[in-house]
């Protein structure tokens, strides 16, 4: 790219540069990257198109466009992703929150509101929290809940902590380091609400994922073992030890896994009923399990 003069020229050049590198929506992505560099909302950006590029902006913009041209996910290049109306920091080391995971949040809130009152001070845990999108959203939506997170990746814990601070939840959410439910089992802790979006891609399918996903997003957050169900097996085995007498469990699952995961929940012996919820593409995506209070 030659040194651009106006913001409009920079935008147009970047757009064709990204197009040449196979970017699917070059004009849109060039605008997002440029607005990120200039720190501008859309309206002021559009009004500034005839202005000259500020000092240093061209170089920074070019560096970002080159990362994107190498197929690094746009969210890592910009450094954020919106989830359930809030902005989360993301970088390599955590999975980029996906829109289908918002359905997990909706279902947890909906079921919890049916099972308890909104004033209940529930203990909730998010297993494999990554950027913290699920746990921090629940903590924001239900300020009375005591939310804990577990992750095996210290990188992820650091990012989730940064996100907690940015959302004003710094002291409210607990970050535990460990493998799935081990930190809870170790301390004999029990919860009312257990949620997880564990790695669920079957190992042999990982190589077939989009290049953006498999080359940049953490394998630890994607690879679910031979049939993709390893984490669900381990989570469900531990349900009798970690669930309180009345409890709600909700997992995100991969394509064709919902029935198996619902069976694993029932096989734990402590879940009374399950429900399967599809995503917007019609893929069964969320499995909910309810443990009813014994009267
Ligand atoms: N939804 C992610 C993907 O398809 C996978 C997330 C996961 O394994 N939990 O790339």
What is this structure's SSE topology?
Blueprint (H helix, E strand, L loop, with lengths): L6 H14 L5 H13 L3 H7 L8 H13 L4 H5 L1 E4 L2 E4 L11 H15 L7 E5 L5 H9 L4 E6 L2 H13 L7 E4 L4 H6 L3 E6 L6 H4 L4 H6 L13 H8 L1 H4 E10 L5 H10 L5 E6 L5 E8 L4
Parallel strand pairs: 3-4, 3-6, 4-5, 6-7
Antiparallel strand pairs: 1-2, 7-9, 8-9
Helix pairs in contact: 1-2, 1-4, 2-4, 6-7, 12-14
GO molecular function: nucleic acid binding; peptide chain release factor N(5)-glutamine methyltransferase activity
Organism: Brevibacillus fluminis
EC number: 2.1.1.297
Gist of the model:
By secondary structure, the chain is an alpha/beta fold.
Keywords, please?
Rossmann fold, 9 strands, 295 residues, 2 domains, 14 helices, alpha/beta, 43% helix, binds glutamine
Can you describe this structure?
It catalyses: L-glutaminyl-[peptide chain release factor] + S-adenosyl-L-methionine = N(5)-methyl-L-glutaminyl-[peptide chain release factor] + S-adenosyl-L-homocysteine + H(+). The protein has 295 residues and is of the alpha/beta class. It has 2 domains: 7-70; 80-291, Rossmann fold (3-Layer(aba) Sandwich), CATH 3.40.50. Helices cover 43% and strands 18% of the residues. The protein has helices at 7-20, 26-38, 42-48, 57-69, 74-78, 101-115, 133-141, 154-166, 182-187, 203-206, 211-216, 230-237, 239-242, 258-267; strands spanning 80-83, 86-89, 123-127, 146-151, 174-177, 191-196, 243-252, 273-278, 284-291. Strands 5-4-3-6-7-9-8 form a 7-stranded mixed beta sheet, sandwiched between helices. Strand 8 and strand 9 (284-291) form a beta hairpin. The longest helix has 15 residues, at 101-115. The mean pLDDT is 96.
